[in-house]
Structure prediction request, 91 residues.
Amino acid sequence: DARVVSIPNLKEFLRQDKKYVQSVLPKKCDIRLCVVAGSGESFYKLINENGKVLEITTFGESGKGQEVAELFGITETEIIKQVKKLTKIHK
Prediction:
């Protein structure tokens, strides 16, 4: 199974009923890639040993959004590459 989930407010999402959280992120979807345009520290609680957080780990870059995203590897190409890598490793 695969799914794409948008969690714009992680704190609010984690405050939800446990049953709801598990319906959005079921245990059977255990290969997880979290893509965060910032520090992904808080998102590590959503993944397990089969997952990865693609994040920006430095501060102070400025520029057009697309250019900064490319600088940090947060691109469609990189996301596809990481998903393929994770699914290949954990088959």
